[in-house]
Specification:
Helix content is 21%, strand content 30%. It has 3 helices and 7 strands, in the order H-H-E-E-E-E-E-E-E-H. The two termini are 48 Å apart.
């Protein structure tokens, strides 16, 4: 059984262990040499992976492990209650009406809640990144593929900022993660497709 903020414990729950004990006792009385054992889900998965490893190696294939879910976007859509309270202008940038594909070395900019106006260069295309996030059960990790990495230009609270190219005021991506070394954003076309919207 899972424990709060902890892993699955070996051996399963007490009720399952009791049932297995009774079944083993009855089997012994009937002359059977077979015995039941209780294992957690984690132990079963580990045993399966261990059993698959020799077969995979004989076939010249990489070891088979549990598939890691892959995400392409981290985005949401909201509708203001009063559209007159908002402007189409991005502070320090202006109006953005078109999109452009990201390119290595491209100069981009954004205006975010925490760091306001910043600029940086794109350093990596089509990146796969693991992003840690907190839950009531502890820290989890989400994997994102097809992402763009730029130099550090954001801090916590800047997520959701529109990344715009520095030359033509065209949308490049949507900022969703970062660190003191880099900023990670999703190509804008992936975001627009996921939300079924256009600029």
């Amino acid at each position: 059984q899972p424990t709060p903020n902890g892993p699955i414990q070996p051996g399963g729950c007490d009720a399952v262990s009791a049932v297995a004990g009774v079944a083993n006792f009855l089997g012994g009385l009937l002359g059977s040499n077979k015995r039941l054992t209780v294992a957690s889900r984690a132990e079963v998965e580990a045993a399966r992976a261990a059993a698959a490893l020799p077969r995979a190696m004989e076939a010249g294939m990489p070891p088979i492990g549990p598939a890691v879910p892959e995400n392409m976007v981290d985005c949401a859509l909201a509708k203001p209650l009063d559209a007159n309270m908002f402007s189409d202008d991005i502070l320090g940038i202006g109006i953005v009406n078109e999109t452009i594909l990201p390119e290595l070395g491209m100069r981009v900019r954004k205006f975010g809640r925490t760091t306001s106006y910043t600029e940086a260069n794109i350093t990596l295309l089509n990146a796969t990144v693991n992003v840690a996030y907190s839950t009531s059960r502890g820290t989890r990790t989400a994997r994102f593929v097809g992402q763009i990495i730029a130099e550090a230009m954001s801090q916590g609270g800047d997520s959701g900022s529109l990344i715009v190219d520095a030359e033509e005021n065209k949308a490049v991506g949507l900022l969703f993660a970062g660190s003191s070394l880099a900023t990670i954003f999703t190509p804008i076309d992936l975001v627009l497709n996921a939300l079924n919207i256009t600029l």
